[in-house]
Amino acid sequence: MNTLELVDHGPVIPVIVIDRLADAVPLAEALVAGGVRVLEVTLRTPVALQAIRAMSAVPGAIVGAGTLRQAADARAAHEAGAVFGVSPGYTAELGAACREIGLPLLPGVATASEVMAAQADGLSFLKFFPATAAGGIPMLKALAGPFADVVFCPTGGISLATAPDFLALPNVKVCGGSWLTPADAVRNGDWARITQLAREASALAR
Ligand SMILES: O=C(O)C(=O)C[C@H](O)[C@H](O)COP(=O)(O)O
Hints:
Oligomer: single chain
Organism: Ideonella aquatica
CATH superfamily: Aldolase class I
Radius of gyration: 16 Å
CATH class: Alpha Beta
Helix content: 25-40%
Catalytic activity: 2-dehydro-3-deoxy-6-phospho-D-gluconate = D-glyceraldehyde 3-phosphate + pyruvate
Number of domains: 1
Largest sheet: 4 strands, parallel
Subunit structure: Homotrimer.
Shape: globular
Keywords: Carbohydrate metabolism, Lyase, Schiff base
Order of helices and strands: EHEHEHEHEHEHEHEHH
Family: Belongs to the KHG/KDPG aldolase family.
Bound molecules: 2-keto 3 deoxy 6 phospho gluconate
């Protein structure tokens, strides 16, 4: 798989934090029911790897791991069944580890130098993180000049209301965000609300 294939499935990749393993499967089912199939599960919690394994068995779900910071994270995610990885930043070490194990990587960048480092290692579909704090739409427009061959997935501070402006940019094919899985909805098992948020996100135009 090439990470750019992920954009074929819809305009938004939800960034998911799982605190309780029991929430993993119903949450994935709720998102898939709303038309959102590509799921980024952050490695921020102790149950994240088990959650990736459980969610991978949900029909229709395409599950990847977020918050990859080191080579060991990539290996653990791959072993848990993640079919892609996302990182908040980029290091050559992480890139090499992902290549070695065959885990497609969507690495985070926030500056021109970071774009150049990722491109030097063959990566041209990049997460722009933290999108809003790192310059938002004006920054993406500025990066389009020298990096016309780069496609971005802006993530960080984006909402249903602001996503359309990002998705309207020629160098943006998909947005990431945690707004589809509000912590209170997950805590309360409000899966219907999450399906509704997923429906709204998957209906966004590109
Ligand atoms: O944990 C990771 O792997 C990250 O890189 C950070 C997340 O992508 C953003 O924190 C999501 O941003 P919000 O939509 O503003 O919540």
